[in-house]
Amino acid sequence: MLRLEPGAWHERPGRRAFTLMELILVMTVLTIAASITAPALAHFFRGRSLDSEARRLLSLIRQGQSRAVSEGLPMELWIDTQQNAYGLEAEPSYEAADAKAVTFTLEKEMQLEVNSVNPATALQSSSARAQNSTKKSNHPNLPSIRFLPDGTIEETSPPVLRLSGLDGHSISIGLSRNGLNYELRGRQN
Predict the structure, then answer these.
(1) Helical segments of the chain, H only
(2) Closest CA to 58 of 189, 187, 188, 181
(3) What is the pLDDT of residues 131-158, one digit of tens each?
(4) Do residues 173 and 161 touch, judged by C-beta distance below 8 A?
(5) Which member of 9, 21, 58, 161 has the greatest number of CB atoms within 10 A?
(6) Residue 88 in contact with residue 98, Cβ under 8 Å?
(7) What are φ and ψ of residue 144, in 5° steps?
């Protein structure tokens, strides 16, 4: 019978520890496995960040439409392609600043583009903006999606937004067929 005394340590018969060679061999195998899978994981996480950014932009679009209806004020989702930033705020009316305004900046390897379906639409859009110069905006020279208090999207809003990464992959967000909301169009390589 094995008797344990307080403060004493006794080995059990038949118990064995790892040798130094076994530990070095296991660490070598793990290092090789990590070096093989690291590039694939990096590519996976870059793709996930593009998807995540597209979903965040789409959520902000939906939030803007919802806020326009619930607060009864026009909302503007502005897009600054030079600074790789976008944000949502209420159109200045009674108060100069919107306390619920949000701004997001894209990661360095991403780019946000505003595309028009055809040049005629772009010309019509710029002339309509000139006619609507009475509307107030904190970002008058930037493309924007404008949500009206009844939940509709102003006709001068861009029909397609394209989010792209340095690896050549991109995701488009565009107006739905009925023109009442925006939706993910899919990934392009």
Answers:
(1) 20-71, 119-131
(2) 181
(3) 444 467 778 888 999 999 998 999 989 9
(4) yes
(5) 161
(6) no
(7) -150, 155
Please give the CATH superfamily to which domain 45-188 belongs: minor pseudopilin epsh domain (3.55.40.10)
Amino acid at 107: E
Q: Which helix (H) or strand (E) holds 12?
A: none
Query: What is the phi/psi pair of residue 103, to 5°?
Result: -135, 135
- Rounded to whole angstroms, the Cα distance separating 57 from 45 reads 18
Confidence (pTM): 0.66
Contact between 87 and 103 under an 8 Å Cβ cutoff? The reply is: yes
Nearest-5° angle of CA 166, CA 172, CA 176? 175
Listed in sequence order, the DSSP H helices in 132-183 are none
CA distance 92 to 24: 66
pLDDT higher for 36 or 95?
A: 36
